[in-house]
Every structure is written in structure tokens, then in C-alpha cells.
Please model this.
Amino acid sequence: MRYNKVNEKIISSLVQIVGKENVISDEKTLENYAHDETPLYRSMPDVALKPGSTEEVSKIMKLANANMVPVTPRGGGTSLSAGAVPIHGGIVLLLERMNKIKEIDKKNMMVIVEPGIITEQLGNELAKHGLFFPPDPVSLDSCMIGGNIAECAGGPRAMKYGVTKNYVLGIEVVLPDSTIQRYGGKLLKNVTGYDIIDLIIGSEGTLAIVTEAILKVLPVPTVIIDLLVPFKCVEDSVNFGIDVMHTGLMPAAIEFMEGEVYRLVAKYLGRNLPFAEADAQIIVELDGNNRELLRKHYDEIGNIALKHGALDVFVGESAKDREKIWEPRKNASDALKDQSKLLAREDLVVPKDKIPELIARLKQCVKQYSAHLYAFGHLGDGNIHSDIAVSDYGDDKKFDHSDKRWINEMRKEIYAITLSLGGAITAEHGIGLSKIQYLEMALDKRQIEIMKKIKMIFDPKNILNPGKIFPQEK
Ligand SMILES: Cc1cc2nc3c(=O)[nH]c(=O)nc-3n(C[C@H](O)[C@H](O)[C@H](O)COP(=O)(O)OP(=O)(O)OC[C@H]3O[C@@H](n4cnc5c(N)ncnc54)[C@H](O)[C@@H]3O)c2cc1C
Model:
């Protein structure tokens, strides 16, 4: 499929649509939109635009269609699958100006938002009204609701509250041909025809541009208590997590960090962290409205932890203590980025009881490539992030890291191990660009064919975020 470059004539039409101040065409600023948070992927757009309304998005799509220019929607740019990288150049559509909360409907416990609102800001605004939007990607201080919908983002609280798709009741979208459409509404149940909302959620910006969403919200829990539990070995920590889930106490989150990650974070933060010698750290978060009841629950969980050989149980009730408990987990990604030559950020998911085996086999596997695997993530739902790094290219004489083909070979092995354990190659970050060549390992030909046909129906010219999810046609 051949695309056209954005020429001066197209630029002047774009200026007419969004205004001069919302058209970015200087190379230095455009460089910010050539990449997201995925290591190794980069491609320059021709232009970046900041539309201020659904109508402007629609007009941009009309122009893009007429000129065969590819369009890549972008929220906070925190994608970890290179989903926001404009691989064919063209237009990057920045949704950041469309960041309003249009309505907080307390009676129906729903909120109507534009896609560019930052997830954490939405949470802060809702809290003022005693409300709460549960999906909590760890990137919530910079990702946006539109990006969360496009990726069906989850987060630590997914084990209790589910992921983004469990909260989207309605959407307004602009289709690639520029049509504006609305699906769903302020309805908790609706089975009128196929569920197009769920099809668009998680479609990684390839089917439609989300310009508005109706989200279900819940009453905000008034009490949150966190526990930090260090363990001698990974297996004990996972068995502890599984036992806690069987108690019916339903923590909001059970997060995992292997000792090596925790120690890297300590170095990154420049201070000692307690029990840094432990091989695994678990955070358990309990939430509700009755402090005394939650205290009973954490006593019970503390006893389970000690039964599984926990080295200690730290309890955080105040906001300050809770922040201290979460700080290492929240800094894990940045610490790894800062202190290692990161090459791949994996987002694997397996049945929870398979986590120790997954980690052990992956570590063994990457060793052949003189690489190192750091594991952390959402134990509560079996989703382990495994960042793969090398100390320095060419440093290790046993292995030549300079020819990056080895990364593909290693990834194939990692995914084969994950799939053999009944897992999936991505739990929440998406296929994007970085996992395209492995899609055929995870899905059969017919499944991929059906998905491609769906893409064709929505986007027959393949101009919306092209080059994502599916291998390019030869
Ligand atoms: C430190 C860190 C921690 C993270 N933790 C988590 C986590 O706990 N859970 C999790 O699920 N993810 C996590 N992520 C990944 C990432 O934050 C999520 O995928 C997030 O939902 C992306 O949102 P964004 O606004 O940054 O989207 P972007 O990165 O800008 O875009 C992501 C994709 O969505 C598309 N898109 C963006 N906006 C729209 C729109 N309005 N309409 C249609 N398509 C659109 C883009 O084209 C792209 O394909 C993490 C990332 C980082 C860097």
C-alpha cells in the first residue's frame, strides 16, 4: 500500500481545520512523536496535529482519505508495543486538547469524558465527588483515557475490578472514512446486535478514533491499607498470593517484584530499602469502607504470609506509609530503563500457578543470549512484566549483541514457553508494532484472517494506524 507524504498543500488545508497553532511541522518537536515508551522503535511523522473537537478529527480523516495519508492517533505516548509510532509517517493525531470531563452523572454513577484526559486527573476529579474509575495502569500520571480504551489497559487493581473494557458503556468514534458514530449509552446492559464497543476497545487505534466515552464509575473506597511482604524465594511468594486469593478477602491488588528488580530500584532511588536481600517482594492492597474489618483482613493475610515463610510483613495505613510501600513498584520501569540497556519489555500472562515456572524457564532461556531477565508485575492476574536487558552491546565476549536478530530469536523462544504454559504473549500492552511477527504463534490463520477482514471493513484504505497488529502484505 503506497502512502503519500503530507505536502504544503495538505498542510495549508490542515491549518484551515485546526488552526496554525495546532499544526506541528518542525523537525525538533516532531521528534517527540517519532517514538513512544517502547525501546528500539522510531519513525518520524510528517506532521502532528492537535484537534480540539470531534468535527475537526472528522475533517482531518476526510482529508487524509482523499490524499492517502496515514494517521496515527496518540494519547500520552506511553505505549509499550510501539502502538503510537507512526511507522509510515503521515499525520500523528494528538488528542491532548480534547481533555474535558463533559459530565459527572452521580445518580447513574457514570462520567462522560473526552479521550485526552489523563487517567490520574480523571481519578482526582472523581474523588472530589466520592467516585472512582478503577482501571489503574501504572503509567496513570501520563497515559490518557483514549489510549487506555485503545489498549484495554489494566493495572494492579484489575484482579478485583477488571480492566478498561469493564467500564466503557458508550463511545463516540470517528471512523477512518471520517464518519462520526456513537455506540452504547448510559446503559449497564445492552445487547442490540454485535458488541462494536468491545471490538473497538483494545483495537490499538486501528479501527476508529475514540473522541468521547461514557464510563461506569464506582463509589471511592474510603479506607486503603497496603502490605509489603518480602519472601526468601519466588515460589513461596506466588503460593502466598494464590492462597490469599482463596480466602475470599478479595484484595484490590497483589503485585510482585523479584529481588533483583527491587535492588535496582533501591540503587535508582539512591537509598537502602528494607529486606533488599529477599528474592521476592509482594504488595497486597486492601480497600473498603470499614477500617476495623480491613485490619482483621490484614491480620489474616499476615498469618498466611508467615505460614509461607515471609521474612516480615510491613503494614501501611497512612498515605505516606502506603506511598513508601508502592514507591519501588512504581519506579520499577524507570529504574530498569535507567540502569540497563533495555531491549524488550514483555507483557506475558499465564495461569497464576505457572508464574514460578515461567520466570525460571525464561531466565534460563535468555541466559543463552547473555541477556538478563527482570520480572515484576501483576501477580493478582498472572500478568508478569519481564524486561530483558544486556549490560552493554559487545561487552560480553561470549555473544555478539550488535546484530539485533538475536532479539527475535530469543522472543520466539520466550513466547513458545509462555504459550506452552497456557499463556498469552500480551496481557495489556497490545501487539502494536513490536509483536507483529509473533502473532502467528499465538493465533491460527483463520483467526488472523477474520481480524484482518474486520480491519478492512472499518478501514478499507488502511490509513488508520497502518502497520500495526498484522504482518504487512508482501
Ligand atoms: C511505566 C509504564 C507503566 C505502564 N503500566 C501499565 C499497566 O499497569 N497496565 C497497562 O495496561 N499498561 C501499562 N503501560 C502501557 C501504557 O501506559 C498503556 O497501554 C496505556 O493505555 C497507553 O495510553 P496512552 O494514552 O499513553 O496511549 P498511547 O501510547 O499514546 O497510544 C497507545 C495506542 O492507542 C492508540 N490511541 C491513543 N489514543 C487513541 C484514541 N483516542 N482513539 C483511538 N486510538 C488511540 C494509539 O494509536 C496507540 O496504538 C505502562 C507503560 C509505562 C511506560
Notes: The pocket of flavin-adenine dinucleotide is lined by residues 36-37, 72-80, 83-84, 95, 115, 137-139, 143-144, 146-148, 150-151, 153-155, 204-205, 209-210, 333, 428-429, 465 (CB under 6 Å). The first strand starts at residue 23 and ends at 24.
